[in-house]
Design goal:
Helices cover 45% and strands 18% of the residues. It starts with 7 loop residues before the first helix and ends with a helix. It is of the alpha/beta class and 946 residues long. The radius of gyration is 36 Å and the shape is flat. The protein is built from 31 helices and 32 strands. A four-stranded antiparallel beta sheet has the order 6-5-17-19. It has a four-stranded mixed beta sheet with strand order 13-14-12-15, with helices on one face. The protein has a four-stranded mixed beta sheet with strand order 30-29-32-31. The longest helix is centred in the C-terminal third of the chain and has 28 residues.
Length: 946
């Protein structure tokens, strides 16, 4: 006897323990010998992380696929693991040290600090994997990997060395995103754009050598001179200028300016190209260059160039061979006095001395204010404008990042990208939805060198050693690096062969001979190897042979560049095959209004809280049924409560079946079934199986869930159970027994179909509805059913359609629930008449009808119904006040139409659409649709009364 109610809090841990004891999710569990392989690698969450709604959606969808394919008999592996999360983990441990008042990272030294990180990982890391278990994730937990474990570290070394030897990894001085607080380069993904109310400072740069030019201007309505741009046509006049006006949001960077760029077609500056300006405060002579980058229509059309402190300027500088002068330290303080690049080519002057004396060593923001003051004092400040703009901040350090010129290690991503682009173009890997291929191509075809070095201690230390003269030796171990270095220095005559042998034999003699690069690799470098490194590569393991390439990658759109593309590159480079044939890109989980979840908004929803309140199954089913391709999930806890009720509905239907002797575990042979009701439900079951399979196979998770919801709630629980009651309680024992077998058999298949979506409840029902089962439900065969009786299905669906329409009309017309109405069939054909005769008893019981009669036409004051291809009338005289009901419907319709008109006015206001938050505009559109449907329904009701 199953419990009266489903208690998720009690049952879910029990089911999880049952799976664990059975080792139910090990690679290949439940599969036959020689079964087709199916594998997914989990996007490795940060070792510091906790489960959030993005994880919950991502892992629910993966688990649906994994459980589905496991039940279809495939040899399944869902590979779990964690990312070592270099910056995040180092910050967590450093914070812990500070809280405990223990020595800091630099005080204890690198080796001791790394030991502490491993200690922290053992004690606190990986919480998220336990949380994923609560969600029901059926990974092979015995195969958990970590991007810093021994095997993956070996793979990282192998890849770095091989790419270096092929010339695909190199060291270069380029601009990077630099976090002045954490003192490391960071990736674009670790940069967040924040809106800042700042200023735009316009500075005058004097033209060198006494040059001047005629600058065009316009006049405003009051006759004042205003800026002119080429699209304005003929200017109002010209004024002689011996300076250019440039604008900046970061005045301190002007100290590193090495050029001014103008568009080659800008008529204002054509004659100035090739000439120079003198950089104020410094005295540096810098060229005016023509380049396509400046927009003649934006600002003054003249753009100051600081190649060492701006990514766009860096590219312009390369095209025109502009000097790269970095004027900031790693901590974002101004450095001038001991900066040879800054002083190079600048004539000594009192102005320069004052600039150096006042600004050297100042923090960038203090220097910003001082530069503005100095420019104003010397007459170089043209004007200042308030200017709201986005400023990139480090998501961990929380401070504005600096484009910073520094030596870093790079991967030649352009070369590696070429085969990865071809793979998608030629269809060997496809994106679902397909529109994400455009995003992939846009990035891959314009890809920049990938900066892979980070100035951290926690991570894979770069396997590069430097000799006394700075020569680089890249090897897998220090011993190999020493051997390579000794051979090199013998070959170039720096040391003799005997000296080399002596140094090789005695480590003390080579003390200080080599020193290792202190930087570590970008976390994404090890993650790029995830599909094959987790399977044992570079060793040729059985798992690698079986499960690579993986079957599908399920991921969010935000890491297509950082992870998906790089896995494609590395998989093709080292495995000669794409790492997956499909990339399914899911959307964002937003709050119920459509706003993006963020801590600052206070609208973050914790999936663990939802699991505590509603159960994991309800959360999973909600996420699945809302996961339409290309549409963000608007998560309303009330929806989760509704799908918890769906589970309760199935639970109660199972209890009803149990109380009426339903037989579970029996084979189902539909052919000899005699009752149309049973042949109907089995036919509908077959359709549901086919539709669910097709939807999951096409990654239409919402359609699969909706198909199951409709079958379970509507067809089985609402209709089949209700229509079966007379048979189960009747005197025809053969009919009752047939129904008991069908009811139990269909429920068994419902459990199986729903299992990928709601694994805990279905596993519990599977176990408690039969004394013995051949296996756990997670290993049971996916249902298959090759049976259809269209005639029986049409017959019962006709009955359902007629009853549903009658109920709908009664509700619309406010007919009292207990009132018994007459149903008039208007000139029915022979088929309808036969159905009325066959189903008359059921119609009366289910639609609360006093009688069923045949008429040639509908009487006055009756509601007409069209259902099942026939016309019916429901006389309302005496049951409701027709006039009052018509008035009520007219008023309600007018109100709904007025609301539609109000919303249409709002949505036609371009200012509102442009300025209101996206989620607010979407809410208005959704409200309009609700009112439209309401008005449509009310109009139908009025039509029935006419």
């Amino acid at each position: 006897m199953i419990e009266k109610t489903y208690d998720a809090a009690a049952i879910e841990p029990r089911i999880a323990e049952r799976w664990e004891k059975a080792d139910a999710f090990r690679a290949g569990a439940g599969a036959a010998e020689g079964a087709e392989a199916y594998s997914i690698v989990i996007p490795p969450p940060n070792v510091t992380g906790s489960l959030h709604m993005g994880h919950a959606l991502n892992d629910t969808l993966q688990d649906i696929l994994i459980r589905f394919e496991r039940m279809r008999g495939k040899n399944v592996l869902w590979q779990p693991g964690l990312d070592h999360a270099g910056i995040a983990t180092q910050m967590v441990v450093e914070r812990q040290l500070a809280e405990r008042k223990e020595p800091g990272r630099r005080d204890m030294g690198r080796d001791a600090f790394i030991d502490r990180v491993w200690q922290w990982k053992g004690e606190s890391g990986g919480t998220i994997l336990e949380q994923l278990r609560r969600l029901g994730a059926s990974c092979d937990w015995s195969r958990e990997r970590f991007t810093m474990d021994e095997g993956l570290s070996k793979a990282v070394l192998h890849v770095f060395v091989e790419l270096y030897r092929k010339g695909l990894i190199y060291k270069d001085k380029r601009l990077v995103n630099w976090d002045p607080k954490l003192l490391t380069a960071i990736s674009d993904l670790e940069v967040e754009q924040k809106e800042v109310a700042g200023h735009l400072w316009h500075f005058r740069y004097p033209l060198a050598d006494g040059a001047s030019y005629e600058h065009p201007y316009n006049l405003d309505d009051e006759g004042n001179r205003v800026a002119w741009k080429p699209s304005d046509g003929e200017p109002a006049g010209h004024e002689t200028r011996d300076y250019l006006v440039v604008a900046t949001t970061r005045p301190e960077t002007m100290l590193g300016d090495t050029g001014v760029a103008v568009h080659p077609d800008d008529p204002r500056y054509k004659d100035l190209v090739g000439k120079h300006v003198i950089l104020p405060l410094v005295g540096r002579r810098i060229p005016i260059v023509a380049d396509e980058y400046p927009d003649p229509e934006a600002g003054t059309g003249a753009v100051k160039m600081t190649p060492a402190h701006d990514f766009n300027d860096f590219e312009v500088g390369k095209r025109h061979d502009l000097q790269q002068i970095s004027i900031l330290t790693v901590a974002a303080a101004v450095t001038l006095a001991e900066n040879p690049d800054f002083l190079d080519g600048v004539e000594p002057s009192d102005d320069l001395d004052r600039t150096v004396a006042e600004l050297d060593g100042k923090d960038r923001f203090a220097a910003r204010d001082m530069v503005v003051t100095m420019m104003e004092e010397r007459g170089y400040l043209d004007r200042v404008e308030n200017h709201a703009h986005t400023v990139p901040h480090g998501d961990r350090g929380g401070v504005p990042i600096e484009p910073f010129l520094t030596d870093q290690w790079y991967v030649d991503a352009k070369t590696l990208a070429e085969p990865a682009i071809a793979s998608v173009r030629e269809g060997r890997t496809k994106f679902v939805p397909k529109n994400w291929e455009t995003t992939y191509f846009d990035w891959m075809e314009n890809i920049q060198p990938w900066c892979i070095s980070r100035q951290l201690w926690w991570g894979h230390q770069i396997p590069a050693w430097y000799g006394p003269d700075g020569e680089i030796f890249v090897e897998k171990s220090e011993e190999e690096a020493v051997a390579a270095a000794l051979a090199h220095y013998v070959m170039n005559g720096t040391i003799s062969d005997d000296e080399a042998k002596a140094m090789a034999a005695d480590p003390a003699r080579r003390d200080g001979f080599l020193h290792r690069d202190e930087d570590v690799l970008d976390t994404w470098f090890s993650s790029a190897l995830w599909p094959f490194s987790t399977l044992g590569w570079p060793e040729k393991t059985p798992e690698l042979a079986t499960y690579y390439p993986t079957s599908v990658l399920v991921t969010g759109f935000d890491i297509i560049f950082f992870w998906v593309a790089r896995m494609m590159m590395m998989g093709l480079e080292f495995m000669d095959e794409e790492p997956f044939h499909t990339v399914y890109v899911h959307a964002l989980v937003r709050d119920k209004t459509g706003a993006k979840m963020s801590k600052s908004k206070g609208n973050v929803v914790d999936p663990l809280d939802l699991i505590d309140e509603y159960g994991a199954d309800a959360l999973r089913f909600t996420l699945a049924i809302m996961a339409a391709q290309g549409r963000d999930v608007k998560l309303d806890p009330q929806r989760i409560a509704g799908y918890r009720n769906f589970g309760t509905k199935l639970w109660n239907a199972t209890r009803f079946a149990e109380m009426n002797g339903a037989l579970h575990g029996a084979a189902l042979n539909p052919a000899p079934l005699t009752l149309p009701l049973n042949r109907w439900i089995v036919t509908e079951l077959g359709r549901t199986i086919a539709e669910t399979e097709a939807a999951i196979g096409a990654y239409r998770f919402n359609d699969a869930a909706a198909t199951l919801y409709r079958f379970v709630w509507n067809l089985f629980c609402d209709w089949y159970v209700e229509l079966a009651k007379p048979t189960l309680g009747g005197s025809d024992e053969a009919a009752a027994n047939e129904t008991r077998i069908v009811m139990g058999s269909v429920l068994d298949r419902i459990y199986a179909l729903l299992h990928p979506f709601m694994p805990f409840m279905t596993e519990e029902l599977w176990a408690t509805t039969a004394e013995t089962r051949p296996s756990l439900l997670c290993h049971a065969a996916w249902p298959s059913l090759d049976f259809a009786d269209p005639a029986a299905a049409d017959d019962i669906n006709w009955l359902i359609a007629v009853v549903s329409e009658i109920r709908s009309v009664r509700a619309e017309m406010n007919v009292p629930a207990g009132a018994q109405a007459a149903l008039l069939a208007i000139a029915p054909d022979a088929s309808t008449a036969a159905r009325l005769d066959r189903h008359g008893t059921a119609l009366k019981r289910l639609a609360r009808l006093a009688s069923i009669e045949t008429r040639d036409g509908a009487p006055d004051q009756s509601a007409q119904i069209i259902a099942g291809g026939a016309t019916f009338a429901l006389p309302l005289a005496g049951m409701i006040d027709i006039a009052a009901e018509r008035s009520r419907l007219e008023k309600a319709e007018a109100k709904a139409l007025a609301e539609i008109e109000r919303i249409d006015r709002k949505l036609s206001n371009q200012k509102f659409v442009a300025n209101a938050p996206e989620e607010v505009v979407e809410q208005e559109r959704e409200k309009r649709e609700v009112y439209r449907l309401e008005a449509e329904k009310l109009a139908t009701g009025l039509e029935r009364l006419r």
